[in-house]
Amino acid sequence: MIFAVWIPLLVPFLAVPAARRLAEALPPRPAAWLLAVASTGLALCSAAALGLLALAGALRLPFVAALGHLVTPLDEVPGAIALPAACAATALLALCGLALIRTARRQLGEVRAARRSLAPATGELAVVRDPSPYAYALPGRPDRIVVTTGMLRALEPAEREALFAHERAHLRGRHHLFLAAAELAAHLHPSLRSLRAPLAYALERCADEAAARAVGDRRLAARAIGRAALAGRAGAPAVPRAALAVAAGPVPRRVAALLDRRPAGAPLRSRGARLVAAALLACLCASAVSAVEAAADLHGGIETAQGED
């Protein structure tokens, strides 16, 4: 366990650059899934490693050992590092847990406050009388597309349809859950914070492509996104972090991607891309296998300390 337990804590520093590089070579939807799964998987493995370190150290305390019916000392982790590592792991887990709870409560509170500010649901579209031009997809029951009168005035009728299709794609794809997973994973390992921005971009690109398909005109979708972003610079109120706004992310890059007639993303045909994919898969497997191996070693050490054969 002493070696395996550290691998899930170190692997994310290697896996994150590979995930970002690979996401750039994929179409938007697979890229979003890749980044969400990678961040969630790496976060869970690192949290499991911290939990194992905390448990291994705690079992060296007499009252905890008595609760576990240990008749001999647990020797899975050397005594010189067992308690310091357990204290550090426990502190980190506590801080991560508090941050997770605080973030979840804040985001839920923002969504509830935004929903309370809207008129009772009479349909998917919620028009807010506000000269500030902004629009976003608000998840909930039911899902709502929030748009202000200022944004409606800033766009032509055809562009409004592209805007609604964009926000509708966010709601149907449950993109807020992807963002929530990345947000929570970022609290469990510092290196995973750098996956939030590329994930948000991939989700916006997914909605951009859906809008282009819905209106049947990529140039119209690009123009709608560009004009909505320019109008939104006039100043918009704080949008809930769980909501997705049409003007989010690097808009010029998104517009350029829509105007590019080539398919979104590129298949993994290059040798470099395949090597990056293999490296990322190896990192994910190494993290998961090491966490399982460390857990198995600790379980075996506990049985030995309990005097079981």
Automatic annotation (TrEMBL):
Binds 1 zinc ion per subunit. Its cofactor is Zn(2+). InterPro entries: Beta-lactam_resp_regulator, Peptidase_M48. The keyword Transmembrane helix applies. Keywords: Hydrolase, Membrane, Metal-binding, Metalloprotease, Protease, Transmembrane, Transmembrane helix, Zinc. Signal peptide: none annotated. Residues 112-183 form the Peptidase M48 domain. The chain crosses the membrane at residues 33-59, 80-101. Belongs to the peptidase M48 family. This is M56 family metallopeptidase. It comes from Streptomyces noboritoensis.
